[in-house]
Amino acid sequence: MKRVKNYINGEWTDSETKEFGEVWCPATGDKIGEVPFSTAADVDRAVQAAKEAYWDWRCTPPLTRARYFFKLKDLFENAFEDISRTLVTEEGKTLDEARGEVRRMIENVEHATGVTTLMTGYNLEDIAHGIDCTAERQPIGVFGAIAPFNFPAMVPWWFLPYAVVSGNTYIVKPSEQVPMTQTRIFEALDECGFPEGVINMVHGSRDAVNGLLYHPDIKGISFVGQSSTARYVYKACGETGKRVQSLGGAKNFVLVMPDAELDRNIPSLITSFYGCAGERCLSGSVLVAVGDVYQELKEKFVAAARALKVGNGLQEGIQMGPVVSRKHKEKVLGYIEKGIREGGKLVLDGRKIQVEGHPNGFYIGPTIFDEVHPDMAIAKEEIFGPVVSILRVKNLDEGLKLIEKSEYGNAACLYTTNGKTAREFKYRAVASMMGINLGIAAPMSFFPFGGAKGSFFGDVKGHGREVFQFFTDTKVVIQRWT
Amino acid sequence: MSLTTFGAIMGFAVEIIGQTIAACEALIERTNHPALKEMLQGLAGEEEKNRSLMEKARREHVTEMILEPITGLHEGEYEIGLKDLGQKHDADLMRVALMLLEREKKFFQDASIKIPLPEVARIFKKISQKKEETLEKLRALGLNLI
User: Fold this and answer.
1) Is A366 left (phi over 0), alpha (psi -120 to 50) or beta?
2) Is the four-CA dihedral A121, A127, A133, A137 of positive or negative sign?
3) Are B125 and B112 in contact (CB under 8 A)?
4) In what order do the strands lie in the sheet with A122-128?
5) What are the C-alpha distances in Å from A474 to residues A119, A158, A470?
């Protein structure tokens, strides 16, 4: 049984804790490892190492810092398949999904190597007679990331490469449910030769999170997880004067107009709702049939969902894996029960799915509720599983009102062949990541990632050009030599 | 089994290329015909490159946003019985090699239409065309040369 270790000051170290969590393989239902619930003292050791490493790293030229990431990219390419398989084993998604995730992780490393242009400031001569002004970007110190279970490889790397290439030092806390993926990633990183203490990893749960949030030497936190925790992180960082970007949950609406090309777009809709077993903040959750598209859309969508191959994600060709844990499976099943109690019509029931050879896996088959009312819990709350609610509206305006009413504002998608409709949708919908004829509106590393309303707390979002602002202070220098 | 995902298609491509390489290696050991030997060595080398190309494409072109289900491509349509390759006569081995190349030509052509990524589809089309050229060269040598 593997017990993962922390990575502090360039060394694999045991936590001082006596408390350990269990790591499971969702596909088989077997216990596969243990994770230390590191203490605040463990976190402090990582912070001290990062603080000690900071000044030398901050004085290293940006291009030299970028060279470490060029090398790291190669190391990640070499470990690509191994990282992907580790990810599938502990998280449950399919191999293709895991490969896609690892690819996106590497894309962030690639994007960060553009530091020599992305981190530059600006200047203007003669802001007053004989006085020149320069705005320079400077690193700040030690930053940290608190990551979720659903993208264990990618999410810490939405932040880490940009922070470190900008001259900061870093601490990652992976989700305690899926600690092995980031451990495998750090094994590759260990070969890269970063100076000790520049990049650190501390495993754990609540104590480690609070250790990071309340540590006086940490300058900023990036968080991704459910909205209630995102709000807590945001508040804690406010109290302690830290920079913060805190990404929360979602309830994403996908509108299909009567003029949409259904046959062409059904595979895209299926990917939106059932990709990663619905455990993603960009997943479609509510399928909104606009006008008279309802009957045809429902029939085609249900048929395609029924045909999905559910199983162990390690087998090529499997299209949907299990959910992450037994506890999460119970939560999703609870929502299905609730949907039935509230009067939703269950037209596809994934509760009793059997996957051959894996009777103890945490599987839920594709599930669809029809005749859902916007006030039902299944239409409003984040389920984070393969459960779809179909709603009907008369027109685009009604659909947009549904989105506006939602407490979340992460993503929204529209399927149409009409450019005017598409423009109106993207212009008015209150969500920050929009898909037009695309069901997963996932910004790539060179665009910002983050939502609106209850889906995001902070100002500067993940990756994109803007993220360099989060990890640097703009120092203004005003000079007169005349 | 249906090849319903990008990874399944790429994995199957790697598998059938591997079978062609194994058949080429068996033939190279047996044949004394210099021209054929040279051609097979060239083919085996080319196939090794194709295998790496497939693995690289699987790694670098996987696009998480559009991992949409793929339909209409079935592994069974490309099945060839390959048991006891080492026990076969030379002429049979040659026929197997031709069958494997025919299969690759057909698979990469069929899959190029199904793969939703133009850059990968282009690689598949190119491999299919290359297989046609190799087949012509092998046929020109004739079966009785072994």
Assistant:
1) beta
2) negative
3) yes
4) A122-128, A131-139, A472-480
5) 10, 21, 10
Could you tell me the two tokens for B119?
A: 């850059």
CA angle B55, A75, A318 (to 5 degrees): 40
pLDDT at B92: 73
The counts of H helices and E strands in chain A are 16, 23
Task: Evaluate whether B42 touches B103 at the Cβ level (below 8 Å).
Answer: no
Q: What is the pLDDT of residue B146?
A: 45
The architecture CATH gives domain B6-61+71-145:
Up-down Bundle (1.20)
Per-residue pLDDT tens over the stretch A171-217: 999 999 999 999 999 999 999 999 999 999 999 999 999 999 999 99
One-letter amino acid at A7 equals Y
Q: Please report the domains of chain A, with CATH numbers, ordered by start residue.
A: 2-248+455-480 (3.40.605.10), 252-436 (3.40.309.10)
Tell me the chain B residues in contact with residue A80 when contact means C-beta distances shorter than 8 Å.
59
pLDDT score recorded for residue B89: 66
A164, A467 contact by CB (below 8 A): no
Assess contact for B106 and B78: CB atoms under 8 A. yes
Query: Which residues of chain A carry a pLDDT beneath 70?
Result: none
What pLDDT, on the 0 to 100 scale, is given for residue A128? 97
Which chain A residues are Cβ-neighbours of B7 within 8 angstroms?
94-96, 99, 316-317
Residue B140: band (very low, low, confident or very high) from pLDDT cuts 50, 70, 90: confident
Helix (H, G, I), strand (E, B) or coil at A288: strand
SS3 B116: coil
For chain B, which residues make up each domain, given as ranges? 6-61+71-145
What tokens does A426 get? 């993207």
The CA angle B86-B90-B91, to the nearest 5 degrees, is: 130
Local confidence band at B145 (pLDDT 50, 70, 90 cut-offs): very low
Cβ neighbour number for residue B126 with a 10 Å cutoff: 14
Contact A103 B67 (CB under 8 A): no
Of the residues B4, B65, B71, the best mutation for testing chain A's interface (the one with the most A CB atoms within 10 Å of its CB) is B65
Q: Could you confirm whether A192 is annotated as catalytic?
A: no
Question: With an 8 Å Cβ cutoff, are A270 and B68 in contact?
Answer: yes
